[in-house]
Amino acid sequence: MTVYFTSDTHFGHGGARGRFRRPFESTAEMDAAMEANWNATVGPGDEVWHLGDFALHMKPDAMAALLGRLNGTKHLIAGNNDGPETLALPGWASVGHYAELTLDGIDLVMCHYAFRTWNGMHRKALNLHGHSHGQLKPQPRQIDVGVDVWNFRPVTLSELTVPRLRRKAVPVSGSP
């Protein structure tokens, strides 16, 4: 089993294309690309931590169907755009506003929002967050896991911790 992280998919949210400069011609194209990228990356036996803002402007049955088509065991850390219908979807293995996890010997503090300080930060714990769509200058050991930063797909901890240059993501449908 591999553990993945993502956030700010904003499935169904046409405004995300313009506001976050997503390179898609339509909301349907954006949603299809993110679903294909997710399923090309995540296997059925994997685990995904979604750090908020799963979908907007979708009916609960459409959200439930979409969540059911996405591979993996899925956990939601609620974001500012996740309403009661999103939180109540039957496809979440867990729902919360904050979580701590130790993975591969690394302590992770997860929330939709970036923290100024967090538990264990002086002991090298990482703060994984979303919300900022790659627009926030991070502190050391603070990582935006949002799809706008990571080619519109979930990513592993090893991918998140490799030093890299900041760059604008481009959609890569069908490949991790």
Topology:
Elements: E1 3-6, H1 15-19, H2 27-41, E2 47-50, H3 60-69, E3 73-77, H4 84-87, E4 92-96, E5 99-103, E6 106-110, E7 126-129, E8 142-144, E9 155-156, H5 157-160
Parallel strand pairs: 1-2, 2-3, 3-4, 6-7, 7-8
Antiparallel strand pairs: 1-9, 5-6
Domain Calcineurin-like phosphoesterase: 1-134
InterPro entries: Calcineurin-like_PHP_lpxH, Metallo-depent_PP-like
Family: Belongs to the metallophosphoesterase superfamily. YfcE family.
Q: How is this structure best summarized?
A:
The protein has 176 residues and is an alpha/beta fold. It is built from five helices and nine strands.
Structure overview:
Belongs to the metallophosphoesterase superfamily. YfcE family. Pfam families: Metallophos_2. Residues 1-134 form the Calcineurin-like phosphoesterase domain. This protein is of the alpha/beta class. It contains 5 helices and 9 strands. It has helices at 15-19, 27-41, 60-69, 84-87, 157-160; strands spanning 3-6, 47-50, 73-77, 92-96, 99-103, 106-110, 126-129, 142-144, 155-156. It has a 5-stranded mixed sheet with strand order 4-3-2-1-9. Strands 5-6-7-8 form a 4-stranded mixed sheet, with no helix packed on it. β3, α4 and β4 (92-96) form a beta-alpha-beta unit. The chain starts with a strand and ends in a 16-residue tail after the last helix. Residues 166-170 have low confidence and may be disordered.
